[in-house]
Amino acid sequence: MAKEFYEEIKRSRLPASIPWVGVRDNEAFPKIRAWMREFTAGLTTIEEGYTKYNTKGKPFALRDTAGRSQVIVPKEMVRWLVGQPNGVFSQRLVLKTKFAIKYFSPPPPKVIPQAVIQVVRHDLTRNLGRLQPLIYDILHCHFDNILGMEENEWKEVDLALVIEPAFAGVFHRVLLGEVLCQQTKSLKSFKQFSLALGLAALGIGQFLPFFMAPPIGYLSSWLVAFCRRRALARLTPVAQERLDNIKRAKMDPTFGYEAQMDIIQWLAVATRGEATATEVSDAVLSLGLAAIHPTTQSGTLAFLDLLSCPPELGHWSAIHDEAASVFLSKEDWENAESLQKLSKTDSAVRESMRLNPQFSRGFMQEVLNKDGVDLPNGLHVPQRAWLGVSIMGVHTDERYYPDPHTYDPFRFSRAREELALKGKTDSTDNVVVDDQIKKLNGTYLATTEDRFASFGLGEHSCPGRWFASKMMKLALAYIAFHYEIQQVTSRQPSMVIGDVVVARQHVNIK
Q1: What does DSSP say about strands 495-497 and 69-73: parallel, antiparallel, or unpaired?
Q2: Are 122 and 400 within 8 A, CB to CB?
Q3: Which residue from 1, 353, 360, 450 could staple onto 78, CB 3.0 to 4.6 Å apart?
Q4: Radius of gyration of the chain from its Cα atoms, rounded to whole angstroms
């Protein structure tokens, strides 16, 4: 606890020129009371700071629900923040503290983080075309089973129970392989670990006061450790078999075995024999936690946003018509090139993620330099300070998005379609149009930019965003193509716990 107090004292020693938001100067213990108000403030404080300071190019400071000081820099500093060389900032230290990882997860060997990035960014992305038939098969079997195939019968279902099991089924197949994903006990142990670690990370890392996190974190770590052991008991033998086969194939050229197309296999190869089967399995467990819930939440909210639109606007019909024009046969559903034609579907999901980011602030980095660091505007922040960006503020800034608080599903595709039409009809302006089209190519779902931070940016961008994008678009297109769904007339707002935006996804649809 003493260490946490010391680090927070260093973190909060900011220059007077960086204003604090949420602090009332006319009350006793203003910063402490401002911190207490954060438990019920939701997005109010950070929105106030963004409007008052960030829109004018200035940073501001606030405390999160755990009482930790954070400096929120304007959007103009995003590329500077994420573009610094190694040794200036550390995102890993922030994540270890903000999600209490240091209490629940043993530090991996050096080869594991590098291997995970390589596997997700290269092996998984490179095999997306080969994986699409498998993804389609899992999704359509689940959707048809839950939603039914009766043409003249309305059925009421919980949207979360439609999307979550389908997406989880895809992730389990890609993560665990063909055998483990069909074993009920293996899936149960995997889900229990993800639930235990997710709740512990959210509760202890985001909700508890920073000085209470160490004792409670270590005391509660036994439950996460228990769930981890049960999951590892299922995964480790499979990982060991893969490692043994790889080693034997290197020693014996005549030994033939069929390499599986899943994360366990790719990690076993990428670690080059420098990690044990347990360490490989542990990495698979962590990937599952990082991937399944965020993608499920984003996918569910994309459906909700579309279904909440008045039917007379024709948004759901437009998604259906686009899917009908692209998917003329089963082969089209299994063809990766088909998804590239879903411009409206791509735009609808991106627009939903713009309004529903997973985190209220992002790009959070801890200053490593002993002497601190100077911001681009000349202000100095000390070592240990946390720097980040208001994602929600940038996403709803009218300077970047007209009518920013309105869900406009075709906001991005409309601009591309208008420019493409202009290029066909106005041959005298082709150079300008081509340049504008290139700029708009950065507005597709899986592309990243400093004004759309749902997938991060630069080195810190989500390496699995292409896979997640494919699955969300395929699911939305399939359901819109095959099912008529009534408008959702009421839905509950999202909750904000610390930096995390938690959506209420249980809404009945018919």
Answers
A1: unpaired
A2: no
A3: 450
A4: 24
Bridge partner residues of 293 (DSSP): none
The pair of structure tokens assigned to 353 is 């993620």
| Cβ atoms of 265 and 240 closer than 8 Å | no
- Give me the residues paired with residue 452 across strands: 449
Q: How many other C-beta atoms are found inside a 10 Å radius of the C-beta of residue 324?
A: 12
Closest CA to 361 of 14, 12, 45, 35: 45
The model's pTM: 0.91
Pairing of strands 386-390, 69-73: parallel
Contact assessment for residue 46 and residue 396, using Cβ atoms and an 8 Å cutoff? no
Host H or E run for residue 362: strand 361-367
What are the distances in angstroms from CA 264 to CA 40, 122, 129?
42, 14, 19
**CA–CA separation, 65 and 34 (whole Å):** 10
Ranges of residues in the chain with a pLDDT under 50 are none
Contact partners, residue 107, CB within 8 Å, separation at least 6: none
Give the Å distances, CA to CA, from 354 to 246, 400, 493: 43, 12, 15
pLDDT at residue 486, rounded to an integer? 87
Nearest Cα to 19, choosing from 97, 73, 94?
A: 73
3-state SS of 355-407 is HCCCECEEEEEEECCCCCEECCCCCEECCCCEEEEEHHHHHCCCCCCCCCCCC
> Residue 87 region, left (φ>0) first, then alpha (ψ -120 to 50), else beta?
left
409 secondary structure, DSSP code: T
Total H helices, total E strands in the chain: 22, 11
- Which residues are CB-neighbours of 146 under 8 A, at least 6 positions away? 157, 161, 162, 165, 166
Tokens of 503: 């959506």
DSSP letter for each residue of 87-106? TTEEHHHHHHHHT-HHHHSP
The dihedral through the CA atoms of 413, 416, 419, 423 has a sign that is: negative
Rounded Cα–Cα distance for residues 104 and 402 (Å): 43
Cβ–Cβ < 8 Å for 129, 334: no
